[in-house]
Amino acid sequence: MALVLGTIYNYYHYLFYEFEDPRMSPYFLVHSPIPVLSIIVLYLFFVLKWGPEYMQDRKPYDLKNVIKFYNLFQVCYNLYFATYGLWNSYLQSNFSFVCQPYDPTDNRESMQRLLYAGFMYYLSKYVDLLDTVFFVLRKKNNQISFLHVYHHAGMVMGVYVYLKYLAGSHPTLLGILNGYVHVFMYSYYFITSLGENYSKKFAWCKKYVTQIQLLQFALLVVHFILPLLQENCPHPKFISMVGITQNAFMFALFFDFYYKSYIKKNK
């Protein structure tokens, strides 16, 4: 038994502390997986059990001003790291859209700035968890769907894995695209949070938020296919397959939501 536990510990230590990208280990919430997993578990328990039970016999909280500030913050924050990341990646002559390999020894100034942008993106995934917390506190439990919870919790874990093992490589496009999609999405949320008149006036934008998200996942599927078409691309094929599968799955979930909300409903 001691031998088994020792083997598990050695593998754990190697995977999370020796195999990690040394450039990212000093960053907050990157070195150890324990705080990351703890936050995800607490999030799931709160939005699925503790929160609804706490709010069961209480009136919904009035969070209008909080949500206005939150939406505006998300617009500015996502625009900042997405633009900063874009400038230091695909707008650099030595960064490839077709096949960008992972190189933990790359310490160029532009790469260091890109790693910082990646970390800012990573932190935004924790901020995104507040979406569901607000649903719970406002008793909007009908909006806490499997798609919503899976997407938010999965993104925290997915970006953590990217920063720890693949920082500055081919999946970089995911963070940049996702940042700009969130700029559009939270801009819409901010405008509609200003009052009922604005909500009605800009109601036509709602379906385009989902359309842009669908476009994002479709582009990412193509993006992860590209390294597989290059004979000498050193980007791990397994990562490309995971990227293709995950984004295709997200496309299917979002399309199911879009079909039920707009196509089937209109019929």
Model description:
Pfam families: ELO. This is Elongation of very long chain fatty acids protein. Belongs to the ELO family. This protein is mostly helical. The chain has one domain. It has ten helices and no strands. It has helices at residues 2-18, 33-55, 64-87, 109-128, 130-137, 146-165, 172-192, 196-201, 206-225, 237-266. The mean pLDDT is 90.
Strand content: under 5%
Q: How many domain units?
A: 1
H/E element order: HHHHHHHHHH
The beta-strand count equals 0
Residue-averaged pLDDT = 90
Major pleated sheet: none
Distance between the termini: 62 Å
Number of helices: 10
**What coarse outline follows from CA principal-axis ratios?**
globular
Measured on Cα atoms, how large is the radius of gyration? 20 Å
Helix fraction, binned, reads over 70%
By secondary-structure content and strand pairing, the structural class works out as mainly alpha
- By oligomeric state, this entry counts as single chain
Unreliable residue runs: none
Main location: membrane
GO molecular function, one term: fatty acid elongase activity
InterPro entries: ELO_CS, ELO_fam
EC number: 2.3.1.199
Keyword list:
10 helices; 267 residues; mainly alpha
Summarize the topology.
Layout: H1 2-18, H2 33-55, H3 64-87, H4 109-128, H5 130-137, H6 146-165, H7 172-192, H8 196-201, H9 206-225, H10 237-266
Helix pairs in contact: 2-5, 2-6, 3-4, 3-7, 4-6, 7-9, 9-10
Compose a concise summary of this entry:
The protein is an all-alpha fold and about 270 residues long. Helix content is about 70%, strand content about 0%. The relative contact order is 0.12.
